[in-house]
Design a protein that fits this description.
With 178 residues, the protein is mainly β. The chain is built from 4 helices and 12 strands. It has 2 domains: 84 residues, Elongation Factor Tu (Ef-tu), domain 3 (Beta Barrel), CATH 2.40.30; 64 residues, Roll (SH3 type barrels). This is Ribosome maturation factor RimM. It holds the Pfam family PRC_RimM. GO terms for molecular function: ribosome binding. InterPro entries: PRC_barrel-like_sf, PRC_RimM, RimM, RimM_N, RimM_N_sf, Transl_B-barrel_sf.
Amino acid sequence: MQQYLEAGKVVTTHGVRGEMKLELWCDGVNFLKKVGRLYPSAQGGRAYKIVSIRAQGQMALLQLEGVDDMDAARALRGQVFYFDRNDATLPAGRWYVADLIGCEVRDADTGRVYGVVTSVDHPGAQDIYTVKAPNGKEYMFPGVDAFLKERNPPEGYLLVTPIPGLLDDDFDSEREEE
């Protein structure tokens, strides 16, 4: 599992005192407040202490220690920042999206492998998982308890109970063709 995970990307400056507008790629402002510091690379590097952060629509206004004027902030435009997973605490049963990508998706009852998770999106009320089957086809399923029975990224798998017609029909017809 990756040690440093994406927090967001600086899209522009805000004001003259070094504040930056951050496109959030994580759980939001309150999450980053608790984390307390950001890194300029997926390998870590020099930590920037978060001096202040507040929401502005879907973005955040971010002030980092040592970034004290517009020129310093402008130099960071386009910069992706990361947080150290050791600085964050997730509730039991919650996982980072980066930990779910690449997990094998298995039938909870039969053990049949449907493919691997290639993305997790959050367009509305629940997450939507995209699974790429061995034949290259992609399938989407909702991340709800009725379907998603277990997430186990440390062991590299998710257990699902297929929604009738979502996965079964395509996989059954593939077996008949073999």
